[in-house]
Amino acid sequence: MENVHEITAKEAKSDKQNNTDGGESRSGKEQMYQTGLVQGTELPERPGLEIPRVQATQSHFEFSMLLEGVVMISIEDARRLAAKGETAESVFGNMLVAVTTTVHDEVLEEWYPQKEIQLIIDFKPDFHIPCDRPVYRTDSKKERREIITRYLRDLKEISRAIKNLSTEIIPLVKGVLPRERKECYRCFEGLDFDRIGYYCAQYFLYGNHGEDLIQDVRQIVGEAQPRAMLLIGVQASSYLRRMPPEVTAAAGERWRRKSGLRNDSLSMQQVQRNYRDWSREIEKELEGGQSRLESFVTNTAEGSIHGN
Prior knowledge:
The protein is of the alpha/beta class. It is built from 13 helices and 8 strands. The strands form 2 sheets. A 4-stranded parallel beta sheet has the order 1-8-7-6. Strands 2-3-4-5 form a 4-stranded parallel beta sheet.
C-alpha cells in the first residue's frame, strides 16, 4: 500500500542529504528554460514535458528522489510544507516544482491573493498556477462574467506582486464562450504571458469526455495562439498525440498507476524505472505535434466549450 503519512521537515532534509549530488544547488535558469514554460522565451529544441502531480507523502517524496524535471503539488500541500519551514528546494532538491491551485472548490474558497503571494515568498516554487476560479457551463452568463472578472483581478495582483521573484506564473484559461475567454487573452497579453494552462480534470469527472477536450483545446489554441500550453489533469497518450503542437506539457496523476507505485512487490528503484520509461513515451507524444494540424477542426460556430 502507498504510504500516506505526510513528510516531516526532518525526514525531507535527511533524505535530501543522502540522495543529492553533494549538496550542489539546482542549475537554475537553464533548467527552467528547458521546460519550455518560461514566459517570453524561445522553446527548447525538444519541448515535450511530462509532469507528475505528487502529494506531500513519504512514498511520493521517495519516488521524486533522483528524478529529473518538474513535479507538481497542490497549493494545500505546499502550504503544509511551508508551515514546517520547508521550501520547494529543501524538499525536492534539484527537481523543479510547480504549485497549482487546481484543487477542490471548497478548498479554493480559503485562498485569496495575499495568501497566495505569501505562500510563493515562503515556499519559493519555480512555477505557480495561480488563483483558479471554477467556471461552469451551468453557471449563468452573469455568474461566469463575475467569476472571470474576479479571477483576472486576482491574477494581476499576484503577478505584479511577485514580478521581481524567480517564480514563473502560468495562467489558466477560463470561460465557456469565446468572448469570456477573450477577456483572459487580453489580460495575458497585458502581462506578457505567452504560456498558458488549461485544467482538464472536469472532462473525466462524470463519464469520459476526452473527445470534447481535444476539440476544446484546439479551439483555445486557435483563439489564444500561445507559444506553449500546459494541460493539467490529462496524460493519456491517446489524447495527447491528437493535441495541437502548442501543447508541450501535461501534468497529472497517471504516473501512479503506470509506475506501479502501489505494488508492494516492487522496489522504489523499479517504480522509478517504470515511471521513466512511461514518461519518455508521453514526452515523445508531446514533442511530435508539428504534423497534427491536418485534423484541426474548430468547435461549433458558437465556440462554447466545457466548463473549466
